[in-house]
Amino acid sequence: MTASDTPLKTLRDVSGLSPAPATLSGSALVMIDLQNTYREGVMRLEGVEPALLEAQSLLARARAAGIPVFHVQHDAGPGSPYDVTAPIGAISPEVAPQGDEPVIVKTFPNAFVGTDLQAQLEAAGVKSVILAGFMTHMCINSTARGAFNLGFSPTVVASATATRALPGLDGGIVPAAALQAASLATLGDLFAVIAPTVAEIGA
Residue 142: which domain range? Predict the structure, then answer.
C-alpha cells in the first residue's frame, strides 16, 4: 500500500474523539444568523432556501423534544445588511423564536464573544451543542471552534448551513460549493462532528 492508498484520518480519529453526531436528548440547538440578510441582495447565499427548510425541520424536532433552543442574531448597526431593527436583519419567519426561546445578539463571528451564550448553555446543563445557520465559512465555523475551545461538543448539520462564493487569491472565484465543502471538512477534522442532514440527528 502506498501513501496515496492510506485511508485518510482526521485529527478527531487520531485523538480518539467520537465520530457520532449529537442526539437531541442532552443537547441544545443553537440557530446561528438565520436572518433575511442571506435571502436577498448582496449577501444572498447559494442554497439558502433549502438550508432554511432543513433548519426549520431541525427546529421543529428540537421543540418537540423539549430541548433548549438558542437563537443567535448578528447586528452590524443601522443601515447595514445586519440591521436587527430592520426587516433585512430580522430572523427569518420560518425559524423565528417562540415563547421564551432566548435571542442572543452578537457583533463578532464567534457567537461566544461578547455574549452570554456560554453562561446560558452552562445554566441549561448541556455540553453538546447542535449548530445550524449561516454562513458556513464564517459564523458557523467560528462558533463551532469557539464551542470546542470552551469544552463543548459541537455537531454541525451540514444541510442546514449555506455560504456564498468568494474572490480567490488568483483573481478568480472560489465557488460556494467548494467553500462549503472545505469549511465543513475543516471543522470535521477536529472541531465538530458533521451530520450531513437533519436525519442523522437522533432523538
Answer: 11-161+174-200
| CATH number reported for the structural domain that contains residue 25 in this entry | 3.40.50.850
Asked if the structure places residue 191 within a domain, the reply is yes
C-alpha cell at 183: 469549511
Find residue 104's DSSP bridge partners.
Answer: 72
- The pLDDT tens digits for 9-34 are 999 999 999 999 999 999 999 999 99
Closest residue by Cα to residue 161 from 72, 75, 49 = 49
Q: Is position 59 within any domain? A: yes
What is the total count of domains within the chain? 1
pTM over 0.90: yes
E-state strands within the chain: 27-32, 69-74, 103-106, 128-134, 153-162, 166-167, 173-174, 193-195
